[in-house]
# Entry
Amino acid sequence: MATIRRLRGRWQAQVRRKGIPPRAKSFDAKIDAEKWARNLEAELDRCGSLPDTRLAEQMTVRDLFERYLKEITPHKRSASSEVYRIGAMLKRDIAHRTLATLTPQHIATYRDERLAVASPATVIRELNSLGHAIDIARKEWGVHLPENPCRMIRRPKPPRGRDRRLQPGEEERLLEAADAGRNPLMGPLIIVALETAMRQGELLGLTWDNVNLERRLAHLPLTKNGEARDVPLSTRAAAVLRELKETATSDRVFNTTKSAVEQAWQHLRKRAGSPDLRFHDLRHEAVTRLLERGWNVIEVA
# Structure
């Protein structure tokens, strides 16, 4: 049986079982002490041993994420975007909660508040990061939690996939805006994206060692799905790459950064009269064009 006693103005609950180190914890309210003791005894009856909940009681969501950013995030291909995403989550109230007190209700409230100002896709990614961090803590870091509260709530409904295509004359306006911009690589980047359906990250990571202009192939050693891929180069794409190679000063085909491309894209799409166009829409356009030319789904994949 648990012992509940008044100690220094607070209520202390103590659980003792033969052969097991005693556990004790203090609370402001007697009912909280009794609840903690009941839960601990139920866990003991079920497992035969007292779980060490001290780490879960001490570790906040902030502590969890800070360790996760050091040990887990750097090994992901999407590390930079996750660092940014978690950094934003650390500024919210949920970061101050300990894992032991974090309930599905708290996470559901966080979800609903975020959905009022962010897209469902953004909220889903945030919940995925939190859920995975808690899973790692439970499985590898010795944090005892009966369940992962993030897995016990409804996720927002994923948004429908975009089907934005370029309108007549829109490609020409984009290229004219790119030529008028400060980043000289934007025009070639747009053309190669439209001709190959490569992702922005794949384009920016492409090196000359992996480009064979004679065979008109670009080799991608690591793609989003974790597999290598060879990308055929159209006549137009190969011509653009030949021009770039003549003045190349780096081993990277597009010697620019993701942030520079994003900044330039924001300006040029406004100049082109396409404020709703995303760079990733060029991939959808490229795939659709290949299908319209008579390629089958397997060839396009």
Q: What stands out?
A: DSSP finds 13 helices and six strands in the chain. The chain has a mean pLDDT of 89.
